[in-house]
Amino acid sequence: MPNVRILCCLLLSHSLAAQNLVPNAGFEAVVTCPTGPGQLFLSSPWDSLNANPDVFNGCMPAGNICNSVSVPNNFMGTGSAHSGNGFAGFTALSSQPDYREYIQAPLITPLQAGEIYRVEAWFRRAPFCNASVQQIGISLSSGSVTQFGTSPLGFMPLVEPPGIVQEAGEWTLAQGFIVAFGGENNIIIGNFADDQGTPSVPVSNAGSTCPFNGSYYYVDDVRVERITETVAIQGDSIICPGESTTLMAVTNSMTWWSEEGNPVLSISDDDSITVSPAVTTTYYLNGIFRTDSLTVTVVAPPVVNLGNDTTICDGQQVVLDVTNLNASYLWSTGATGAGITISTAGPYWVEVTNEGCTVTDMMELTVLLNPDISLGTDTVFCALTGTFIELDAGPATAYSWSPTGDTSRLIVPLETGIYEVTATFADGCNKFATIQVREVCEPVVHIPTAFTPNGDGLNDLLTCFHSGIDQMHMQVYNRWGQLVFETTDPDSGWNGATDRGPAQPGTYVYLVTYTYHPAGGIPESGAIRGYITLIR
After folding, report:
1. Helices vs strands, H then E, count in the chain
2. Pairing of the two strands 357-368 and 450-451
3. Full set of structural domains in the chain with CATH
4. Cα dihedral value 67, 70, 73, 75, nearest 10
5. pLDDT in tens, 131-172
6. Is 123 strand, coil or helix?
């Protein structure tokens, strides 16, 4: 068996950019145009071992189909090349026991020890044969391989398709990777197993012009190339609990997946894996020499709860707050903060995103509407004249007045102050109204015509009787115009004395000036003047 290390075999497609070490890889070049079966040697440097494999080329003119090696029509069926206008063919299983055909060619340069090489070829079952097999494959050797008669070579190939190649209309890629021991300089293609190790699947070749009892395969575009290994992982690294993410292998070699719980145990050798870890987990993509890793972080989603649907009264507000650490927010109102204050009926929703996890919640706000109440504009009353006002809170089911404590719809204020009423409606909602009430009367200022300051306790003081004034200035003069008494205290009076002793009986003149606030609220002033008689 050839001295090489087998790494894998698989089917995939890739770009062909590196140097191909296989000469005449597509069997396009021929020494002369083949004229019939068994002329593989015309596609030099390809050759057979001991049997008689074939080369097919479009240069052969149409003729007897059962002797033709033309493309696309030939003695094994009809079909185009994988690329170009030529390909080779060999018998993989025959009615003759353990009969095998192999094709081989020297490589352009030997393989270098320790380097990674991609090895591949395209295969297609010939339409006129009546069996398909899996054991066709590719091997490499140091020097040419010897076949004893037409018997199987008896060792495992480096690369073979992972399943039975039975499609007659499509080309199938067999591909694998090796780490060279060094010096490998020859490539061999065929079925390496004996008949006992070659299970076959019957296929229909009914209607074939030249039916073949056995399994026959076309081969095209053989390739051996050295690669610089690339191993990388692409995919989302942050998920929410219960979510999954697909990790993609970005590689040009054989890879397999494992995880941190058991990094040497393969969980898949597919190009991609879909994972849904319950906790943060690191995944590894293992190549031939290189390894890449990606940690899938399971992020705790934000906690979002707007509560149950809510009903409020008109004028009330509801504060919705969904604060989460390191989160972003989007409300149905367009707001982007952690909370909003609402008072209008309708549905409200919020989306909270925390490092990639988004949680949404919704609630419905119902607002109970009741008519507004009003006590009118600020007003005045005057108890002195019996001028009172009535405050009406409007229709409701219950009332509470402050500061009086009344519970009726109507009240009559008797004191200056701020009055507030709470009206309760049938749905339990309240409305509020306030008004300022002041007692304002037209000013009354009166001076008596005489007084008797004789100490008998009756009419001993000359006093100004007043109502509804803010300030007062009273002056008393004798008949020569001299000021004998003056005060700004509305509640004080003249006792008939002067700084020279008791005033003489007689007639005196008084002048009273004052200020007051009428109903309009703008201060005004007034004055009265008259005579007073002092009697002793």
Report:
1. 0, 44
2. unpaired
3. 5-227 (2.60.120.260), 231-298 (2.60.40), 310-368 (2.60.40.10), 379-439 (no CATH), 444-534 (2.60.40)
4. 30
5. 999 889 999 999 999 899 999 998 889 888 777 777 778 899
6. strand
